[in-house]
Design a protein that fits this description.
Blueprint lengths: L20 H8 L28 H27 L22 H7 L22 E2 L10 E2 L1 H5 L5 H10 L2 E11 L2 E10 L4 H9 L7 E2 L7 E3 L5 E2 L6 E11 L2 E9 L5 H15 L1
Length: about 280
């Protein structure tokens, strides 16, 4: 018994392969549109040319002036000096100095020289007298003898020790004083003399600490007077007072007029006293 082979079934049709993804994607992309022509307004502008850098002419001129100035000046100076006539040099050997054969008279030389200021002796005789209606001062500086020593003057200041050394160093010699009192006002006239070798200190004593609103004293070189309207205060009693001062210098002698009053000092009265004392001094 034979067996027939079983009929083989025909192979079924193979399924169609899917198109590649790239092909499929390309088929779906939209068609590119044609580029539109650019409008006239959108045309790019031409780039501007860079500005040319300015040359530093001022700096160059300054440098040239600094370099050429000394050269030109030196050349001009040399030309001027070269055109001048030569100055002959002195001889290397000079003659011996010649001296006067005659003997100089010492007394004649002194007589021919400038005369010193005739301010010596008793200075109290040069002081003015107190007014007839005034009272003498029984106390205070120089009230007993009319003289004030360096110690007496120094004690009138709060820093007496400093003032004492200062007056000795500056050549303080003596102080002649005339003082009087009228009502409640005290008047003091002084002639302060320095050593002859310390005239500069006398000048400084008059010219220093001069108020800006002071007035010049007629007939003097550096004399002034001042009667301020602002009161001062005594250091011990703390009482207020008004102070007027006039000063001038002749040689090594200082004239000083001081007025202490509970009211403002009369400037005309101060000036009158100072002028009368100055007339006796000159």
């Amino acid at each position: 018994m034979t067996t027939e082979p079983a009929e083989t079934a025909e192979p079924s049709e193979l399924p169609e392969l899917a198109a590649p993804a790239e092909t499929a994607g390309l088929s779906e992309l939209p068609e590119p549109s044609e580029p539109s022509e650019p409008s006239e307004s959108a045309e790019p502008s031409e780039p501007a040319e860079p500005a040319a850098a300015r040359r530093p002419r001022t700096a160059r001129l300054l440098v040239a002036a600094l370099l050429l100035g000394p050269l030109v000046g030196g050349g001009v100076g040399y030309a001027i000096q070269a055109g001048r006539p030569r100055t002959p040099l002195p001889a290397l050997r000079v003659g011996a100095p010649q001296y006067v054969a005659t003997v100089v008279d010492g007394k004649g030389a002194v007589d021919a020289g400038p005369k010193p200021l005739n301010i010596d002796g008793d200075l109290r005789k040069l002081l003015i007298s107190k007014p007839a209606d005034a009272d003498d001062m029984t106390d205070g500086l120089g009230a007993d003898s009319g003289w004030a020593s360096v110690g007496d003057v120094a004690l009138t200041y709060t820093d007496a020790d400093v003032r004492f050394r200062e007056m000795l160093f500056t050549g303080f010699r003596r102080d002649a004083i005339a003082s009087w009192k009228k009502n409640d006002t005290v008047y003091r006239v002084e002639l302060v003399q320095y050593d002859a070798t310390h005239v500069a200190e006398a000048v400084n004593a008059v010219s220093s600490n001069v108020p800006a609103d002071s007035h010049p004293l007629d007939g003097t070189v550096d004399g002034t007077y001042d009667a301020p309207s602002t009161p001062s205060t005594y250091s011990e009693t703390h009482e207020q007072y008004y102070y007027g001062k006039a000063s001038a210098r002749r040689g090594d002698v200082i004239m000083r007029v001081s007025i202490y009053s509970p009211n403002q000092v009369n400037a005309d009265e101060l000036k009158d006293i100072a002028e009368r004392q100055w007339e006796r001094l000159v």
